[in-house]
Design goal:
The protein is mainly beta and 442 residues long. 5% of the residues lie in helices and 58% in strands.
Length: 442
């Protein structure tokens, strides 16, 4: 039975290759078992059908309104309406079979196309030789060789050889070669080599370019990538994921690790990057003492927001800091902690606008404090808001910035020896005012 199905599925390629110089006939209804045994006789490829119903495989020049096939359906020219097959639908699958190379070149120069205007629904494969305006729905693979205006919903993979204006949804992946204007959703892969506007949602998302709504050539729309790994060239929209990678990034990145380069166009502001680590501009080490820990060590990474604005008297950065804190060899109830801080820092410039002289920052912090040398079995949370001020130590030591900071802290489950300065209780928790003093290398 399996061998018979395969023979019936693909026998059309050999048996009914048609020369495009044939004058095609019209048929209101085709009824058939498979090509050659149907109401259209031995040459079904000469007929344009309004309706076509076939027990196994249907074959014709075109179908205008409705086609239903037990296994597969093949239309050598453009078709419209609804096409339903148990395994596969083809439009233009063998449109050049039977032609000489010279005739094929002539057809292409004339702009010969095999388009779908309507719907394809199948168990495994939908194929359109040129453009699709409508929808392809299958449990396997959808393939449109040129552009798609509409939707592809595939159990495995969706492919568009030119641009997509609409939606691609698949389990494994979606590919739109030249551009995307719409939505791609999959468990694994979404990609376009060109520009994208809309949303890509999957484990790995890639766009050639995500246009910016700012800059010398602003776009009216931009795009968002949401996934585990997001990559793009120039990026003017949003990336939300574990790892975000952009070439010239004027948009916003939110993730664990953000990798970027600064955009080039002057006098335009950039979006922030929020993550545990941001690589692309500065990486600053910090050390300080606080009311809660005697030793705090931080890695401070950031992204400039207005460095391209030449008239700015201060430089704004979004920044993120990963901090390890310890009360090493001290008899304190809290032994060590780890935290994450994010915020905005503003460096004020001297008369030399390239010289950052002093700064002020605002940030929020959340972290864990540990009551034992080994990791506690439960998470002990601490939250804080910080205001920090720093200044350049001297011209000869221009990279060293001493700083002082003030904070307001909250522990949902306070320890007995938690700080008491301006402290108030809140149930089992405590709020108090704190401080930190240290130095940053910038």
């Amino acid at each position: 039975m399996i061998r018979l199905s395969i023979i019936l599925l693909f026998s059309w390629q050999i048996m009914f290759a048609q020369n495009k110089t044939v004058a095609y006939k019209k048929s209101s209804l085709q009824l058939g078992l498979f090509p050659g045994i149907s109401t259209n006789g031995l040459d079904p490829g000469e007929y344009e059908n309004l309706f076509s119903l076939n027990l196994f495989t249907g074959y014709g020049y075109s179908t205008r309104y409705f086609e239903l096939n037990g296994l597969s359906g093949f239309n050598t020219a453009s078709a419209s309406g609804i096409h339903i097959s148990g395994i596969a639908n083809f439009i233009g699958g063998n449109e050049m079979v039977g032609l000489t190379e010279k005739e094929k070149r002539r057809q292409r120069r004339k702009g010969y196309e095999t388009n779908l205007t309507g719907f394809q629904i199948s168990g495994f494969l939908n194929y359109t030789g040129t453009n699709t305006e409508g929808a392809q729905i299958t449990g396997g693979v959808n393939n449109t060789q040129k552009y798609l205006i509409g939707a592809q919903i595939g159990g495995l993979f969706n492919y568009v050889g030119s641009f997509t204006m609409g939606t691609q949804i698949a389990v494994l992946g979606n590919y739109s070669k030249k551009s995307l204007s719409g939505v791609q959703i999959s468990l694994l892969l979404n990609t376009t080599q060109g520009s994208s506007t809309g949303i890509q949602l999957g484990a790995y998302n890639h766009s050639g370019v995500i246009n910016s709504t700012k800059g010398p050539n602003p776009s009216t729309n931009t795009a968002m990538q949401i996934g585990v790994v997001n990559t793009t060239g120039d990026m003017g929209g949003w990336q939300i994921g574990v790892l975000n990678i952009g070439d010239r990034v004027a948009g916003t990145q939110i993730g664990i690790i953000n990798i970027f380069k600064n955009a080039k166009s002057v006098d335009y502001k950039d979006g922030p990057a929020f993550g545990l680590f941001n690589f692309g501009y500065f990486i600053n080490p910090r050390a300080y003492v606080s009311e809660l820990f005697l030793s705090n060590y931080g890695i401070y990474t950031g992204k400039p927001l207005n460095s391209r604005v030449r008239s700015a008297t201060r430089t704004l950065y979004s920044y993120n800091e990963a901090v390890f804190s310890t009360n090493y060899k001290q008899e304190r109830e809290i032994k060590w902690g780890a935290s994450y801080r994010f915020g905005i820092i503003s460096f004020y410039k001297s008369q030399d606008v390239t010289n950052e002289r002093n700064y002020i920052s605002l940030s929020a912090e959340l972290g864990h404090y540990n009551l034992n040398k080994k990791l506690d079995k439960k998470l002990n949370m601490r939250y804080a808001l910080h205001t920090e001020m720093g200044f350049k130590l001297s011209r000869k030591m221009s990279s060293i910035f001493p700083f002082v900071a003030f904070s307001y802290n909250y522990m949902p489950n306070a320890v007995e020896t938690s700080p008491e300065f301006l402290a108030t209780t809140a149930g089992n928790g405590k709020l108090w005012a704190g401080y930190s003093v240290g130095v940053m290398i910038h």
